[in-house]
Design a protein that fits this description.
three-stranded antiparallel sheet, 3 domains, 354 residues, alpha+beta, 14 strands, seven-stranded antiparallel sheet
Length: 354
Amino acid sequence: MIAAFIANKINAYVSGGMSVEIATEFAMGELGAIYRGRHYSRDNSGAMHLTPLPENLDIEMATKKADTVIAEIISQYPVPVEKPRIYQGSAAIKRAVATGIGIKPFFAKSGDNDPDAYTTDLKEIAAMWNGGQRRFKAFIRSRFLALDIDRKPGKPDGLEAFYRMFPRETLPVELQELPESFPCYVQTPSGGFHLYFKYEGPELNLRELATGIEIKEWQITAPGSRRENGEYILHGELDKAPHLYGLIVDAIEETKQRKEHEKVERSKPRKKAAGDRPAQPEKPRITLDDLAQEAIATYAGHHDRQVSFAGRACRCKFSGADALAYVKSRYDVFGDDTDTENTILSVYRDYGAA
């Protein structure tokens, strides 16, 4: 009887939208009122009347039974998951500064990797904000490392690349349903997100883990920043960010080694070494005598032979001076026309050569 009463009451309250905890309090309140003879009920006429106290009631025993029933009922409901708080604009910037992250205007000319260019002074930051500044860079080196997962439309999906590199079943639960499963991340205007990890170790010196996944070790667009297409919204608390997982460090080192190997391979000569190639007979170099014979075989007139010879000599990389000297030495082939020099050099000029 007690079990049925408690179960019905809790389930009815939960169905109405109450949390399990509040429903339990209400059900126990009703049960206690019955035990004390102070519980009012409605009969079919709608009139209110006192529920009579059960006869021979052992209140202590009944309460223990009720506690057991309640514990069993609560165990059937999933444990409520507390959703991370969301911070936007100046509230997100304050959360970042509270963890020691310095801020500077995004387009400031000072060095992005210079910690002295950033400030954690809230008065300075407020002055920038009140002056209309809405986009900032955050200096995260020696505090955090962030994975920038890109999800821009029309470009390779960084999240798909992440799960190709790390199968879900091999990952900690925080990484299995990104980004919602992660305790601390920043949603970007383009649909991607920044995953923040605590990291104070040596620089890992890798910019891109995979296509669509960048590694941010020094600076990153600050939470709370705003650009023309949206805001950088902080989900959760930065001080609850997990430490950088070893599996990610290992993947970074493997990627560095692979890229270094690819770089070495690209630097190697693509052709086989001379000792590995069969000997090739050396082609005889064409001579001006050869070109003269070709002109003789093709043309009968001196002028036509000069034009043909000059064109062939130019294409075979002989200088205009060499070609002219040869023509003048072979008056038997090219004649001794007073316009010979102009003809030869004119052909070279037409070919764009001297």
